[in-house]
């Protein structure tokens, strides 16, 4: 396991703080605020620490405030219900006493049942694609210096976009995106950890799907974008240290909000998870001189 991936695994190992409270450390990825996927992953881990014998199958969360990447996050888990098959946990993430995320996680006793899935769409093999880091290196001379740290910082998740967008000169494209991703290095055989890391990774480059039809990116002047909520459904077991295909589309954008959906497949075509997210995508009017 690479050091950067080991550090991410350690970040998911949140510390108990008594009475279903936990504390997680933050990570600075070069973004203006704490990465939303970071809070999702830790919130899912906190909820999972309050239950045994059941696996998380869905998580629904709202991002309430920007997080501080240089301050710890406190998690409060509330035991809403434990039924014969399903359990529900409410989780609240706070920094400096203020809520930055609230969500619910549902767990289920594993059982046999009907089984079907949509086929994995066609996509080029990940070995034929360049990683985001390689693509970003080619852009540095044209990108404002304030974005250099964000674009070049090493990350524990390797992402290889299928049809990369040039953030400095975006073209109008259909409302769909694909990318392969995986953790950089072998991970422990911990099923909960793999789902928490998938929640973490599922927030990377998701809202950009709704920007495709408009020919803008987060670097476009006067562009404001942020995740408003995030939902993830875990259909089947997965491994985050093997390639996963993230197939995304955006059915709608209206009123300053973009709606995004995603299906995540293992390399052999198994649908392991689905996601949905609404995001703020606002083009602010420039200030008059």
TrEMBL record:
Which keywords does UniProt give here? Hydrolase
Q: Which InterPro entries match?
A: Acyl-CoA_hotdog, Acyl_CoA_thio, HotDog_dom_sf, TesB_ACOT8-like_N, TesB_C
Tell me which CDD domains the record gives. Thioesterase_II_repeat1 (cd03444), Thioesterase_II_repeat2 (cd03445)
Gene3D superfamilies annotated for this entry?
A: Acyl-CoA thioesterase, double hotdog domain (2.40.160.210)
Q: Which residues form the Acyl-CoA thioesterase-like N-terminal HotDog domain?
A: 34-108
Query: Which domain of life does the UniProt lineage start with?
Result: Bacteria
Q: A Pfam family name for this chain? A: 4HBT_3
Location of the Acyl-CoA thioesterase 2 C-terminal domain = 154-278
The UniProt entry's coiled-coil ranges are none
Family of the protein in this entry:
Belongs to the C/M/P thioester hydrolase family.
Q: Which PANTHER family match?
A: ACYL-COA THIOESTERASE (PTHR11066), ACYL-COENZYME A THIOESTERASE 8 (PTHR11066:SF34)
Designated name of the protein: Acyl-CoA thioesterase
Question: What organism does this protein naturally occur in?
Answer: Marinobacter lacisalsi
């Amino acid at each position: 396991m690479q050091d950067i991936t080991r550090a991410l695994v350690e970040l998911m190992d949140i510390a108990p703080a008594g009475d279903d409270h936990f504390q997680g450390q933050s990570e600075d990825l070069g973004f203006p605020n704490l990465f939303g996927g970071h809070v999702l992953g830790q919130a899912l881990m906190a909820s999972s620490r309050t239950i045994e014998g059941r696996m998380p199958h869905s998580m629904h969360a709202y991002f309430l405030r920007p997080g501080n990447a240089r301050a710890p996050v406190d998690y409060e888990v509330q035991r809403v219900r434990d039924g014969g098959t399903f359990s529900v946990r409410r989780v609240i993430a706070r920094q400096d006493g203020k809520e930055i995320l609230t969500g619910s996680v549902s767990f289920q006793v594993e059982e046999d049942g009907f089984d079907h899935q949509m086929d994995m769409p066609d996509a080029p093999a990940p070995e034929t694609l360049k990683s985001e880091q390689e693509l970003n290196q080619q852009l540095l001379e044209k990108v404002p210096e304030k974005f250099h740290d964000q674009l070049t910082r090493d990350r524990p998740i390797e992402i290889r976009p299928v049809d990369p967008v040039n953030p400095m000169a975006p073209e109008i494209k259909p409302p769909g995106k694909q990318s392969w991703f995986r953790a950089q290095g072998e991970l422990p055989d911990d099923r909960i950890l793999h789902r928490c890391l998938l929640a973490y990774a599922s927030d990377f480059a998701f809202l950009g799907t709704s920007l495709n039809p408009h020919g803008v990116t987060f670097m476009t002047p006067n562009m404001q974008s942020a995740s408003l909520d995030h939902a993830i459904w875990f259909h089947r077991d997965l491994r985050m240290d093997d390639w996963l295909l993230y197939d995304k589309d955006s059915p709608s954008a209206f009123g300053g909000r973009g709606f995004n959906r995603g299906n995540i497949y293992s390399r052999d075509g198994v649908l392991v998870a689905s996601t949905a997210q609404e995001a703020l995508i606002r083009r602010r009017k420039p200030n008059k001189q």
